[in-house]
Amino acid sequence: MKYILFFLSTIALLSYGQTTIGINNFPSSGDQYVYSNANTNGVDVSLTGTNINWDYSSLVNVSNDTATYVSVTATPFAYQFYFNNGFIYPNHKADYAIEGIEINAFNQVTISEVFNFHKKNNASLEMVGFGANINGIPASIKYDTIDQLYPLPLSYGASDSTSAYYLLDVPSLGTYGQHIQRKVVVDGWGSIITPYQTYNQSLRVKTTLYQRDTLKVEQPFSTPGIAFNRPVQTTYEWFANGIGVPVFSVTLQGNTISNVKYIDANTSNLIEHKNNFDLNVYPNPSNTIINISTSQKNAEMKIIDCNGKIILSGNYQEKIDISEYPRGQYFLILTHQGQKGTLSIQKN
Predict the structure, then answer these.
(1) Degrees to nearest 5, angle at CA 170 with 115 and 150
(2) pTM of the model
(3) Domain residue ranges in the chain
């Protein structure tokens, strides 16, 4: 009997550890998620392996932001040249874009108003390039060697090492380029507890990023070019099935933690403001149409699910059809001139 029990427990352990993250676990155009940025005190990323319980429930929210995945056509037209032309540039035809961070190199090249363009397939999630203002001039920049963000599907023990490169012309200056080496390893699985929610089956993905910037000034005279290495960036991300983005992440610049964030509908803050607009929803629960009444008709409206994903965003509407929503709890949020009204909605 003990051998049978050992066999069954081994099968259960293996089954639990075989969580995989595939193409359907990454965003689509139009998806939005609410994130909380947390304090970095007491965050330890050294623990990893099999069947780990990561407990980050004591972290304190310090701010919130929203990640929005937009269609390629919603970005500035000048950015779309390589990423919306599957006939001429099939390898760079993107599925969606997301806002990126500003880059300042050598105090001479400013890359601002950035949109990163992503492409996903069954084998990988890729960043194929970006659109940005280069020293104030809008441009479309494709990666000469595409940057593979993750090999797919992700499963415990998977690892990969890839390189990427781009070179762009900088008006009235010369050329600027960046070499990128990315090392990805799925180094743990288990349960993770965030201040918002517990995810019983999750994978931890460690990404180490090495970046080298190069600049060659062509005017008023040619130079051999200069280069420097950016600080090594290490990111730990926890993925759970059914959620399109990491549920928790920790980013280090060198050996210093620079960012901690987690998926969060931010319900504790929302509930504090639920009466500001004399807000009412009926019928509630419902499985078809809900009616929304409020004293503030000019408010902006959002509906967020329990995973922090924004399901609907726009101006106030009196009626919403929720018949296509999955069963569960949602949060209706109205905002206007710094005031907020919120109510919980139950879909039967």
Answers:
(1) 35
(2) 0.76
(3) 21-263, 267-347
| Angstrom distance (rounded) from CA 266 to CA 197 | 11
- Nearest-Å Rg of the Cα atoms of the chain is 23
Hey, is 254 helix, strand or coil? coil
Number of C-beta neighbours around residue 289 at 10 A: 11
Higher-pLDDT residue of 203 and 306 is: 203
- Give the position of tokens 């008006």: 171
Q: How far is it, in rounded angstroms, from Cα 248 to Cα 240?
A: 10
Placement of tokens 């005031």 in the chain: 339
Q: Is 224 helix (H, G, I), strand (E, B) or coil?
A: coil
Rounded to an integer, the average pLDDT of 331-340 is: 79
| CATH number for the domain whose boundaries are 267-347 | 2.60.40.3080
Band of residue 270 on the pLDDT scale cut at 50, 70, 90 = very low
Residues 6+ away with beta carbon under 8 Å from 139: 78, 79, 131, 132, 133, 168
Closest CA to 48 of 154, 183, 186, 141: 186
Residue 36: partners with Cβ closer than 8 Å, 6 or more residues away: 61, 63, 64, 195, 196, 261, 262, 264, 266
For the stretch 126-184, pLDDT in tens is: 999 999 999 999 999 999 999 999 999 999 999 999 999 999 999 888 899 999 999 99
Three-state secondary structure call for residue 75: coil
CA distance 212 to 84: 28
CA separation for the pair 80, 89 (Å, rounded): 11
Say how far apart CA 121 and CA 266 lie, in whole Å: 32
Decide: 36 and 64 in contact? Cβ < 8 Å: yes
